[in-house]
Write a structure and sequence with these properties.
alpha/beta; five-stranded mixed beta sheet
Length: about 400
């Protein structure tokens, strides 16, 4: 029997000795044969008669096809179980086992992955820890992105942050495309912004998190993170899929990098975008990120500017929340989308806006205030339609981007 849709993202009990994946084989493929090939070939494989004296031990490492279900279009969904004992607890070993070499020749898509609750890492902070650090409870957190993405120097970043900080912003992040460039070195960006964060903290009693983007090879990236935190940096941004899950795991385990880590979804489309191959977005941006220790994960909101499905978003959010990781809907988020997002997921999210704050007609501060105004109206059950909103930052935002 296939697990029900709402069961597919749930963790297995802690200590469970198996890992389960649901694989779809497309119409025309011999799903039963391919599933068996994957279960055996990605685990112990076959062995020569000379190893027959080790039969019991070798068989304990074999995967098993647990179920097969023929779909209406002629495709097959198979649940395959893999022995946990084949793994060392890392995401790299896990990915190598569940898809690894098979992905080079077999046509299949991993729809869901169920891991034991104690496999991998848990977030050090997650959404509860972020709320505690910011002393913000009972409402969505509001996050902005430095724009333009490239071309600003450190002073330019500080100028933008000053305007957003005065309006009460909770979190800001670098654009993921900005590495450690000579025109705006990562340490200089933090040093320029740190006094603004300190002044906001002194004035309001509330912190403001700045997720500084990490870049470099694995060693220099970790050293960069340590230097930033040693100088007071209070959050980090990592492009997990381009730099690797092993880098995220190393940062989460590093006692010198004890700050929240925001995971960006860059490159996810290359892994998840093909309809009959790769991994589902819920597996990559949900299950894997949540078990690799990310505190918050960005993903495209299906209401936004990227073609993304509501089903994929739902799967991501379910997997993240199961481990208290903060969901961060992004890409095209603006005040007019707040009602849709909160209507679906409630206020336990981080609303992440780039142009939706930075390109507000009246400036960056009003761009932040428009979100707070939208939140207040939503909380009180008031309409976010343009004609119902009085003049002010929200009205101006709805004039530009729409809403409802």
């Amino acid at each position: 029997m296939m697990p029900a849709e709402d069961e597919r993202s749930k963790d297995l009990p802690a200590g469970h000795s198996w890992i389960e994946g649901d694989y779809r084989f497309p119409p025309g493929a011999d799903g039963a044969r391919q599933a068996q090939m994957l279960a055996v070939g990605q685990t112990a494989g076959s062995w020569h008669a000379r190893h027959s004296h080790r039969e019991k031990e070798l068989r304990s490492h074999l995967g098993e096809v647990r179920s097969l279900a023929l779909q209406e279009d002629g495709g097959t969904v198979a649940t395959i179980a893999f022995p946990r004992g084949n793994l060392d607890g890392s995401m790299g070993a896990l990915l190598t086992m569940i898809f690894g070499k098979y992905s080079l020749g077999g046509v299949a898509r991993i729809l869901a992955l169920r891991l034991p609750a104690d496999y991998g890492l848990r977030p050090r902070f997650g959404l509860p820890g972020l709320r505690q650090r910011l002393d913000v409870h009972g409402r969505p957190l509001i996050m902005a992105i430095f724009k333009p993405a490239l071309g600003l120097d450190a002073a330019g970043h500080a100028e933008i942050l000053a305007q957003a900080a005065m309006a009460g912003l909770d979190i800001i992040k670098d654009d993921e495309i900005l590495p450690d460039l000579a025109e705006a070195p990562v340490l200089e960006r933090w040093r320029a912004c740190a006094p603004i964060i300190e002044a906001r903290r002194d004035r309001s009693g509330r912190d403001l998190l700045y997720a500084v983007n990490l870049s470099g090879d694995a060693r220099s990236l970790q050293e960069q993170a340590r230097r930033l935190v040693a100088e007071g940096a209070n959050a980090l941004l990592l492009n997990v899929l381009t730099y690797g899950f092993a880098v995220l795991e190393a940062l989460v385990r590093d006692p010198e990098v004890a700050v929240p880590i925001f995971a960006h979804p860059a490159f996810a489309g290359a892994l998840c975008g093909a309809p009959e191959h790769g991994l589902a977005y819920g597996v990559v941006l949900g299950t894997l990120m949540a078990h690799a220790g990310a505190d918050a994960v960005l993903y495209p909101a299906h209401y936004g500017s990227l073609p993304f499905s509501a089903a994929d978003e739902t799967a991501i959010v379910a997997a993240l929340r199961a481990r208290a990781v903060a969901p961060v809907p992004s890409a095209g988020v603006h005040p007019g989308t707040l009602a849709q997002i909160l209507g679906d997921y409630g206020c336990e999210v981080i609303l992440n806006a780039g142009t939706g704050i930075m390109d507000h007609p009246d400036g960056i501060g009003p761009g932040v205030l428009a979100f707070f105004e939208a939140w207040e109206r939503w909380q009180q059950g008031e309409s976010l339609r343009l004609e119902a909103v009085p003049p002010g930052p929200l009205h101006r935002a709805l004039e530009k981007w729409g809403g409802g």
